[in-house]
Amino acid sequence: MDYFASELLAAAWWSYMRIMITISHVFISTSAFLICAAAFERYITISKIACQFARHHRLIIIGACTVIAVIAKGPMYFEVEVVPNANCTGVTSLTAIPSEFSESEPYKTMYK
């Protein structure tokens, strides 16, 4: 967008930026939770404590990790607003700012 000074690329970027940032953060959190679950499963397997539980419930654990990540990071979509950039044209005609929702209580205290 900046290199080619393309307004078409700028419009594409601003149209999907919020959803892509949210999705990427959900997947980053999911992968961190799954690494913790894998480490816990490894511990259970090595210590011979309820070895079959973790093996038979992997899909449930994956689903739970995904749901927790969506609950934790899903609201990021509402944290940013794309607004017109005053006195700017072309690729800089839009900008992202923190939304009022992200600055209000209790969201600010709980999620930030």
Automatic annotation (TrEMBL):
Spans traversing the lipid bilayer: 16-38, 59-78
Record's keyword annotation contains Kinase: no
Keywords: Membrane, Transmembrane, Transmembrane helix
Official protein name in the record: G-protein coupled receptors family 1 profile domain-containing protein
Source lineage: Eukaryota, Metazoa, Ecdysozoa, Nematoda, Chromadorea
